[in-house]
Structure formats: structure tokens, C-alpha cells
Amino acid sequence: MLNQNQTPLLDALKANAARLHAPFYTPGHKQGEGISQPLADLFGKAVFRADLTELADLDNLFAPQGVIQEAQQLAAAAFGASQTWFLVNGSTCGIEAAILATCGTGDKIILPRNVHSSAIAGLILSGAIPIFLNPEYDPVLDIAHSITPNAVESALQQHPDAKAVLTVYPTYYGVCGNLSAIASITHQYNIPLLVDEAHGAHFAFHPELPTPALAVGADLTVQSIHKVLGAMTQASMLHIQGDRIDCDRISKALQLVQSTSPSYLLLASLDAARQQMALHGKMLMSRTLQLANEARTKISQIPGLSVLQILSKPYQGGLGGSSSIGGLGGSLGFVALDETRLTVTVSGLGLTGFEADEILDEKFAVTAEFASLQHLTFIISLGNTPADIEQLVQSFTTLAKEYRRTNLTVKSDLWQDVFTTKCHPLHFSPREAFFAVSEILPLIQTNQRICAEIVCPYPPGIPVLMPGEVITKPVLDYLQQIQVMGGLITGCNDTSFKTLKVLKI
Asked: I need a surface site. Which of 314, 345, 398, 428 has the fewest CB within 10 A?
């Protein structure tokens, strides 16, 4: 049995950082000796002594046989996988590698329309053909949840030649669909279920959190250890189980999308984060859940605010009162909620999420994970403190008292128009459209043209338009409303969103 007290990669890095020697290898700053003074003043020199390359004692990420291999084996045991790969280019490269390892040019993959932009990048790189499914949608809260098992089963009946199913679990709002049923249906066709579990790395460490994807049948899952646990930004993991996915193809795909000069600082942080959770995860998550529940309870009692919460019966709609809550409890697109993810509906104060986000940040030094038209979403993690929760609750209390306006009128059904009507037709595969001859046109001239770039509000980075997709008026209206109300449009060539790149006719 593996000893989860060990940190083989972290220990090796520490030893090499302390070793006195003359370095004639990269990086050029030579353990901090050549670093600029302003950078040294900010970080200190200790971190640069550990910023090393693939020395003999530090193993090789793309052909691990030593401490990286040992660290990955410990991680696989801790997270319930048969094999784990460390990622230094974030979960983005893991999602891309998952698609590259299971799909080739012209192969079909079934996935939700509200996937992260990394999945679209995976389609472009692989040449795979997406079969998009609309997620279940709450029209009152204006929030999309998970795809349903019925939708997956219907898609597979129509496309039995699909090579994989990919889903998001949990969503950016912490909502989990019926992944167990989706896995069962997918496996009836003997194809793998790939899961974007970027925001669910903590699930394996507490029984009150949603069940981890691997535990309910996922064949592959990608987790951002940096998003909710204690690793450094960009540090993620890819896990697999079973024999539906070729491990060698995963390794080769990762070589295509990861740096050949991986940061050992990031790799060591994965080793340390794994040890921390393996030894103390339940205690840390218990404390985190306690803080989150305190915030949820107190904020839900503030007049004009409500919090996203799963209900014991399907949500009937309506804000109802000062402490109302919402969700689609019992629906197949919303069977569990990560209670450490807090989504607060602020439209009852007459504010957009973007306005409330700006006020909280500038006036009260409280910064949300992301804002949307009606909501603010907060990640409460093992790094938060009781003081953070007190500041969060107090900021909302003051917001409701001093910044309340008349009721906000938002055309929230624009989101529904965009994502819950029939999926927009793809006239070209994302890869074909991405590399096709294109032109840039004023926004007003792009209706019914074919998009040649990825366009998405960020965060959360869910593309509203992608290469190969027909541009429609509801999509343009939605993006413009997001921009007018303070949202940021990313991915496209023109960040002012006055023009769009389209396929040249």
C-alpha cells in the first residue's frame, strides 16, 4: 500500500534546490542569481532556487520513471484512479488531450453546448465532429445545468458511431447532473465517458460533497487542483480508470499540448496538494463546508437576495420573498450541488451581477469568482477563513441596504434563446472553419454568416459562438447585452466586439 505521507517529487526538488553546484543549464536566471531585483523583492530568491529543469534526480514529465512517476502513482491512489498524469498547462490541455486520444478527424463526439472553450480547442485540434446537446435550463434563474441521461441516450441512438461522450461535472455553478446514469448509457455503446471535472477535485475527500466522477463510472476525468485545492495556478491532473482509453494515446496527446519545459514548481505543488488532501482532506473539507453553509444561511436571509440551492422537489419559480432559494431539485440535470460553491442572485436588488460585482470589489474588497447577468458566484475553499465569510456576509448586508434600486428588468430569456432552442447548425467542422479563409465584418453584417472564431464571455469561458457555427440575431443580442451590462467578451479578434471574423464567401 502506498504511503500518502510521502512527497517524492517535492522532496527531490527541495534537495536539488539546496545542492551547491555550478549550473550550466536552463533556466537562464540560474537559481535566482540572474533574476531582476523587482522580481526578487516580490517573490524572494527561494522560489527561484527551486525553479529547475529536468535534472537527473527530478525525472521527466513525458517519460516518468522516478519521482514524477511515484508522485503520480500516489495521486492516482488518493483520487481513485488507475493512472494519473500531472498537467502544467491547466485542465485546458487535459481536455484537449482527452479528445485527441479518443477522436480523430471526422469522428463524432457527444458533448453539451455549454462546454468550456478548451473542448472547442480540442475539436479544432482533433478534427472531431461535435454532436451538441442542450443542457437543462432553469428559465427563472437563467442558469444552465447539466445534460440529461435521456438526451445522451437519444444522441447515441441517432449517432451510434460516436467515439466518446464528454460532459461537465460540476458546472461553474457547482451543479452536478446524473453522471451515473450517463455513464451507464455511454458504456452500453462501449465508448468512454470523458468528464470535465475541473471544479470538482475536492469531491473525493468528503461524503457530504457530490460523488467524484470516477466513482460513478467516468473513464477519464480532468481536475483543476489549483482551482479548489492547494496547488499553484495551472497545476491540474488527468485521471483514468478501466480499459476503454488507450494510456499510450493519452501520453502522446499530452506531449502535443504541454510544454516541453514543464515547471517543477507546478509539479511539486501537485505532489504537496495531493499529500495535504490524502492526510487531512476530510477535516479541511468539513471546515470549508461549515464556512460555506454559514455564508449560504446568512446571505439567504438578506432581503432581496437568494442563493442557488437544490430543492427536494422541482423548482416552481418566482423569487417569493427575501430569503428565497432556487434550483431544480430532483431534475436529471441537477441531482447534486457542491455546497462550497455559492451563487447569489442579486437581481432582486435591482442590480445586475456585473454591477454588484464592481461594488463589492471596489467598495468592500470582496472579489467574486465571476459575475453573470443576475448572479454572483463565489468559490469557498480550504484557503478561506471565518473572517472572509464575515466580510462577505457584511458586504452583502450593506449592498442590500445602501445600493438597492428598483427591480431590475433583464431580458434573461436571451440565454434561453441562445442555448436551449435547437442547437445552431454547424456548416463546417470547428477545425475546417478555424483554418478556412476568413474576413472581418462589422457586427451588423454578420447575422446568418458562419463564424470563424471562438467568442465567449469570460469567466466562465463558455463559448457562445465557435468556428463553423451560424451566427444568429439572438446570439448577437445576448453578447451585446453582456457587454453593455459590464461583461467581458473574449476569444475573438476584436475585443471591443464591434466586428466578427466570419468565413469568406
From this structure: 314
Grid cell of 436 as nine digits:
478556412
Q: Model pTM?
A: 0.93
SS (H, E, C) 409-473: CCCCHHHHHHHCCCCCCECCCHHHHHHCCEEEEEHHHCCCCEECCCEEECCCCCCCECCCEECCH
- Angle in degrees, 0-180, between the axes of helices 264-300 and 8-18, rounded to the nearest 10: 120
C-alpha–C-alpha distance, residues 136 and 155, integer Å:
15
Q: Is the pLDDT of residue 317 over 60?
A: no
Would you say 23 and 52 are in contact if contact means Cβ atoms under 8 Å apart? Answer: no
| Run of H or E residues at 326 | strand 325-326
Residue given cell 445602501 in the structure block:
402
Is a pLDDT exceeding 80 seen at residue 70?
A: yes
Say if CB 441 and CB 500 are below 8 A apart.
yes
Give the whole-angstrom CA distance, residue 353 versus residue 437: 38
| φ and ψ of 125, to 5 deg | -65, -40
Task: Decide: residue 495, CB within 10 A, 0-12 exposed, 13-18 middle, 19+ buried.
Answer: exposed
- Structural contact between residues 376 and 353, judged by C-beta atoms closer than 8 angstroms: yes
Mean pLDDT for the stretch of residues 308-323: 47
